Amino acid sequence: MNILIKNGHVLDPANKVDEKLDLLVSDNKIAKLGKPGSLSADGAQVIDAAGKLVVPGLIDMHVHLREPGFEYKETIATGTASAKAGGFTSVCCMPNTNPVNDSRSVTEFILSQARHAAAQVFPIGAITKGSKGEELSEMGELHASGCFAISDDGKPVMSASMMRRAMEYSKIFDLLVISHCEDKTLSDTGVMNEGMVCTELGLRGIPRAAEDVMTGRDIALAELTGCRLHIAHVSTSGSVELIRAAKKRGAKVTAETCPHYFALTDDAVRGYNTLAKMNPPLRTADDVAAIKEGLKDGTLDVIATDHAPHAMDEKSGEFDYAPFGIVGLETALGLTLKLVQEGILSPADVIRKLSYHPAMVLKLNKGTLSARADADITIIDPNLEWTVDSSLFKSKSKNTPFNGWKLKGRAVQTIVGGR
Predict the structure, then answer these.
(1) Is residue 20 a contact partner of residue 9, using CB atoms and an 8 Å limit?
(2) CA 11 to chain centroid
(3) Whose CA is closest to 75, among 393, 311, 395, 400?
(4) Cβ pair 152, 130 in contact under 8 A
(5) Is the CB of residue 211 less than 8 Å from the CB of residue 283?
(6) Which helix (H) or strand (E) holds 411?
(7) Residues with Cβ within 8 Å of residue 340, at least 6 apart in sequence
(8) What is the mean pLDDT of residues 380-402?
(9) 418 vs 142: CA distance, rounded Å
(10) Under a CB-based contact definition with an 8 Å cutoff, are residues 232 and 178 in contact?
(11) CA nearest 258: which of 214, 212, 294?
(12) Average pLDDT in the 85-113 region?
């Protein structure tokens, strides 16, 4: 099928394109860009994108699709439908399924289930078998079956020796190591950020040092081994500083944060709001400022969602026992565009962090509108004002702290592989 997208403002940071152009899709690939009115194709579906941004399909390198094992929370079908609704054409799914994705059979099952999904799915394999931190997974098998990265996300690799070996072996297959930076001996049974709000509510706290200590350790190990390290869901000012310093030294370190870490503080937990319970936890205003500065100066390369669906009956119990995590695929773009409205990022910066940089970090042939690239395209109306209504989410789960928020800017059309 041919598609002609007319009159849109094309933003393609990979090729330094930032102007009003037409775009032609042919045979599920980007065919060409041209001045408005210069392109035509017989029988093509025509999309008028006047007043809208036409960008490379958004890529979320950190989601939890829950299948296999937790299909009551989310499935690959519902998770990718949520992704598509949010403007994401590709997602990378973390391995904390049941069974854990630590083998060829689980990876192949995920890819099989994703064959007809609404967005493209790239599985991430486990660093250790069962994500127990005791024995390395078969990285060669995971790589051969389709994994681009490894992570025990949700569980930190507590043994420095084990993490070192994982990094050394990852280099053989050029697998990205994605680190969940949490020292469990410090976070222990904590349920929110350690600080004033935690004290007022009488809840057990998680100190910022729990993240910072492991961020520092894994950066040191990455410099020792020379592996490619990506720090997941950065939430503290300390981690931002550690990553910034590592990059200045030339370490092969990249990092991501999530919209909730620049949109909310731990004040959102007041009233024992379990919808604001996540790991790492929401931090302070100082941390939020540091996260924004890290995004602005390039210390933080990627914005990911850490989309973590949970059934509402799980989230509606006591705060101590409610699971960590929120859904994020359908609110991420609108929340990130607030940074444009605040003057922190430009529209091109947003597309870098939501498309081009994730592709570069993962070494995916995505994130660009170059000729012959896959026709993964997101059309965004930057002026569309809308109110978050979780009851309308395509995700099976509705656990968001942003319900009722008024946002400006939304994906209005998502094209995945020319579809």
Answers:
(1) yes
(2) 20
(3) 395
(4) no
(5) no
(6) strand 406-415
(7) 346, 347, 349, 350, 382, 409
(8) 98
(9) 28
(10) yes
(11) 294
(12) 98
Q: At residue 22, what are phi and psi to the nearest 5 degrees? A: -95, 155
Choose the weakest-confidence range: 32-46, 192-206, 395-409: 32-46
Residues 288, 273: Cα–Cα separation, whole Å: 19
**pLDDT tens track for 337-352:** 999 999 999 999 999 9
Q: Please state, in angstroms and rounded to a whole number, the distance separating the CA atoms of residues 119 and 271.
A: 37
pTM above 0.90, yes or no: yes
Residue 410 has a pLDDT of 98
CATH number of 56-362: 3.20.20.140
Mean pLDDT of 163-173: 98
Residue of 102, 306, 374, 376 with catalytic role: 306
Dist. CA 323–CA 396, nearest whole Å: 16
Active-site residue flag, 306: yes
Q: What is the pLDDT of residue 1?
A: 74
Per-residue tokens: 133:
């931190």
pLDDT in tens, 234-276: 999 999 999 999 999 999 999 999 999 999 999 999 999 999 9
Other CB atoms within a 10 A radius of the CB of residue 49 amount to 23
DSSP per position, 87-121 = TEEEEEE-S-SSS-S-SHHHHHHHHHHTTT-SSEE
Tokens 């045979």 correspond to 27
